[in-house]
Write a sequence for this structure.
């Protein structure tokens, strides 16, 4: 007996079937069951009789079908494969220094503040709300070294219904005096954190396959972790079959420091490999300045690269050649890298990934002083869409669960309204081509176009939810006036 259907959409769907294949389905019916999975997808439903016939087979009432308008469409939720929740307060500032100086001057002092749980309680709800509002249905977070505020972020992500990977940061050397852990503490608190997060969804019976929130082992980078710490984290990853995240080959000064710290190892990628930190569940952010030997090792270990173009431009780390990574068969997703990157939005990451790929394309043509070098063509719209959705799903090893709208996957989706109130994109009446409307949204749209944001079939954000909340607040205010301020809804203590 199939699960009961909780939602049915009728209209246009846009999703990636492969890097090159962006599928656009019009007049399509999509049904989501009560467990949040896509139960059916019927294409070319061209008349009411067929529509009613299909939904009646699923015993779904016709009046509850969510009918998209002509220019609205559904697309998969965005996956941010690398972001620092803790650095959100610095976003948009401090872009005058390269990585290592930037860390010391701006980033470590801010991260230190999360030793106080109440600081985390002020910042983290804003971060999760804003990421959801921007369409990030799955986020891979770095927190700080602090156990309690890291646990708090994990609880919060669960409460707000986002899919998330939460990494308590490890750092036991080359760090400021007031922002460092001992080796022992670092390992112990990481194990406690893993157990805590693995237990979070026990009450909902979501311990295994279907959980929303996962722990991820997070050595900050090889500069701030001793060999012993990295060895221990590699062992923990094996013991609990955990994903791992870190930074790799972001900045030339960083790479030089790595070769001073690990003179016996040939390159940066091998440093992580030597400590058991590279496997198919590893996500490395940046990967800009990799040698061909390192690319080969990355491919062999099947690790994923989180491409963070906004950050790479903002703190002048370099321009990553994503085309080359893809040609080598390496998995690539997109990351905002707050606050090295100033924007919380994956739409912004897509746009900067587009620009970065064009910079590589044009620069490679200049070297030869010939017409544009066709060996590094810039990324296309289907490829950019893939990186933001399916590519991210591959990095977090959820490509069988999310990333597009295949039947059986969980429904993480965005309902986009190009004609929303105060929409930043203008569509002229004669622009009927849905692919061009989609392209306009990708390059000009923002959260005002995100009518609804769904994770696992549940609406968790979006403009209609916010306006409902606002309406509710307005109603409560009026109630409060009516009851002379003693309404128990407005004042839970009354
Ligand atoms: N490398 C080590 N830590 C960081 C960080 O917080 N941000 C970025 N962009 N790179 C890093
Ligand atoms: Fe980062």
């Amino acid at each position: 007996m199939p699960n009961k259907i909780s939602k049915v959409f009728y209209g246009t769907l846009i999703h990636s079937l492969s890097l090159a294949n962006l599928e656009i389905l019009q007049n399509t019916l999509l049904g989501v069951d009560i467990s949040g999975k896509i139960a059916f997808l019927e294409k070319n439903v061209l008349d009411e009789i067929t529509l009613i016939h299909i939904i009646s087979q699923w015993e779904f009432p016709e009046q509850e079908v969510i009918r998209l308008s002509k220019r609205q469409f559904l697309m998969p939720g965005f996956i941010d494969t690398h972001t620092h929740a803790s650095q959100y307060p610095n976003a948009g500032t401090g872009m005058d220094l390269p990585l290592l100086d930037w860390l010391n001057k701006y980033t470590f002092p801010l991260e230190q503040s999360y030793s106080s749980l109440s600081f985390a309680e002020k910042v983290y709800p804003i971060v999760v709300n804003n990421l959801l509002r921007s369409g990030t249905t799955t986020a891979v977070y770095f927190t700080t070294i602090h156990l309690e505020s890291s646990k708090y972020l994990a609880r919060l992500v669960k409460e707000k219904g986002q899919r998330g990977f939460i990494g308590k940061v490890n750092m036991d050397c080359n760090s400021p005096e007031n922002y460092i852990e001992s080796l022992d503490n670092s390992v112990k608190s990481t194990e406690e954190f893993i157990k805590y997060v693995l237990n979070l969804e026990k009450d909902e019976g979501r311990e295994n396959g279907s959980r929303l929130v996962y722990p991820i082992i997070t050595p900050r980078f090889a500069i701030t972790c001793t060999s012993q710490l990295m060895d221990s984290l590699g062992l923990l990853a094996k013991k609990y079959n955990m994903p791992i995240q870190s930074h790799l080959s972001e900045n030339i000064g960083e790479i030089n420091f790595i070769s001073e710290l690990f003179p016996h190892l040939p390159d940066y990628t091998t440093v992580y490999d030597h400590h058991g930190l590279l496997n198919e569940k590893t996500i490395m952010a940046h990967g800009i300045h990799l040698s061909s030997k390192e690319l080969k090792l990355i491919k062999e270990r099947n690790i994923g690269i989180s491409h963070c173009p906004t950050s790479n431009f903002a703190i002048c780390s370099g321009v990553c050649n994503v085309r080359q990574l893809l040609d080598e068969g390496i998995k690539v997703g997109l990351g905002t890298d707050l606050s090295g990157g100033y924007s919380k939005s994956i739409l912004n990451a897509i746009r900067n990934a587009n620009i970065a790929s064009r910079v590589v394309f044009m620069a490679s043509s200049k070297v030869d002083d010939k017409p544009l070098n066709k060996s590094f063509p810039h990324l296309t719209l289907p490829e950019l869409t893939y990186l933001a959705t399916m590519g991210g799903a591959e990095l977090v090893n959820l490509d069988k669960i999310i990333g597009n709208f295949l039947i059986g996957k969980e429904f993480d989706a965005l309902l986009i309204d190009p004609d929303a109130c105060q929409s930043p994109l203008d569509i002229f009446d004669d622009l009927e081509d849905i692919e061009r409307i989609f392209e306009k949204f990708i390059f000009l749209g923002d959260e005002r176009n995100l009518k609804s944001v769904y994770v696992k079939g549940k609406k968790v954000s979006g403009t209609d939810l916010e306006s409902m909340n606002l309406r509710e607040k307005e109603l409560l205010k009026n109630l409060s006036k009516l009851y002379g301020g003693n309404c128990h809804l407005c004042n839970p203590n009354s």
Q: What stands out?
A: The chain has two domains: 5-76+405-468, 78-396. Residues 82, 84, 247, 285, 337, 340 surround fe (iii) ion (ligand 2) (CB under 6 Å). The CA atoms of residues 53 and 458 lie 25 Å apart.
